[in-house]
Amino acid sequence: VDFKVTVLGSGAALPTQKRNATAQFVECVGRSILIDCAEGTQYRLRELGIKIQKIQHILISHLHGDHYFGLVGLISTMHLLGRDKGLTIYGPTLLEKIIKLQLEAGGNQLAFDITFIPIDGNSNKLIFEDAKIEIHTFPLKHRIPTNGYLIKEKKKELHLNPEALQKDQIPKAYFNLLKRGVDPVLDSGQKINHKKYTLPASPARSYAFCSDTKKNLDLIPMLSNVDLLYHEATFKEQHKDRAKATYHSTAKQAAEIAKAAEVKKLLLGHFSARYPNEETHLKEAKSIFEEVLIAEDSQTYMI
Amino acid sequence: VDFKVTVLGSGAALPTQKRNATAQFVECVGRSILIDCAEGTQYRLRELGIKIQKIQHILISHLHGDHYFGLVGLISTMHLLGRDKGLTIYGPTLLEKIIKLQLEAGGNQLAFDITFIPIDGNSNKLIFEDAKIEIHTFPLKHRIPTNGYLIKEKKKELHLNPEALQKDQIPKAYFNLLKRGVDPVLDSGQKINHKKYTLPASPARSYAFCSDTKKNLDLIPMLSNVDLLYHEATFKEQHKDRAKATYHSTAKQAAEIAKAAEVKKLLLGHFSARYPNEETHLKEAKSIFEEVLIAEDSQTYMI
Question: Would an 8 Å CB–CB cutoff place B169 in contact with chain A?
């Protein structure tokens, strides 16, 4: 079952023809999650044929406009298109006030419920879980409180080994216990070892989102071994002083984090509009960490 | 000198591929005015090569999102691009609070001043004038307080009649008085009649904006003889009950207003997303008033 990220906007605060500001659509084993929601995100979703009503969770990193100015419009369009299914929005405390003030000013009552979960970029926390996935938040280091997010599959069940099961005539009633790694006692009184009848579980995949932030070594434990890390790379090394002053990262710094956290793949984004292209970002990141990609608007990345 | 309107969005609340929600850019004898500012308006301005920094006045009709959700993003982009020139925004009182709350949440101090002029759709009022133009507001009839706007050139000076002036050897010192319609007394003590030395002034052009509103006969005096009337035409006659219930107009009702006000030309817009095209709107309007156009996104209309 798919776990993938579609980049809706890979630019920084100033949108360009090529890169809109930040938004990403994540599909994780049937769950639909929007991360950040710059102005125009609803148009990009429409262009890509992504049905907005299937979005269940919206994660907002922080209250710089290039990360959420499209949220109230998206909510309005969900309403106009007849949504009745609830929506959960995770983000800074003030977000609820901002959205509600605008909805109230319009005098329209939404036909669906929004649950706002306040997250103010100050601690690691599990914010959602169901049978299949978990969503965690963790603090980034930016000019205002900013949340990183980690979406991961839960640890999966072991695969059954059909040959071994058949050979020893293990009854089906025990299969679920075996898949969960339990050693069941058969009717005969015999205790069997699950390892004999199972194969290793598929790995649980994970995706981490870090935008906007200065280089922050505190993130490494949380990012450790993720399959895909999206990390902002607003600047090239040439402008690393500017990165420091504005609490952003260079591409090389993002790669240093990826390397230290031993992630499988690094996706760079949030590029400043000052650069005509990102060849230098890529080169500088690759000098540190080989498995790196430049995020492009409307591209989908499999995890 | 030009007086023209560029339609940035001609659709209703639900944006479509073909029609974005409401925004218009008006150039009036060198003054740059934005009317309404739906989400994505800044992208449309960029596509059309309209420099956002030259916008001096922004007129907001009301606080339904399809008329102003792009305003805060436009302001942010003006800031990021280094604006230092002041900006005046006319609109409902609550707009100032909505915009300021979002700017403050982002923690950025704007490098230019915004003057908010509260207008709450309750009376006819002159809201701006300079040497060349006037901007008036007038109340529309919608579900929430909504402002119409009238932009017009000031009454122009008379043209001089060079032949008559030369024939009677009228000194140049009196030309400005004559242009203003004054009858000056010459050094000789003779009083001259300005009509003898002037030709009629060029007509002062005018543009009126009415979105969103139910059919409202009270508008007629204000709209009387305007060169171009933009009037919403959300619905066809088939859905006139829906128009009434939602405080909108049909194309035919818009044409009835245009006819009664004896405007020169009618521009219809704010079309509901339910219609695949606007042929019926046009036909129904033309049955009442011949000089009617269907607004199209990115089109410019000369006044």
Answer: no
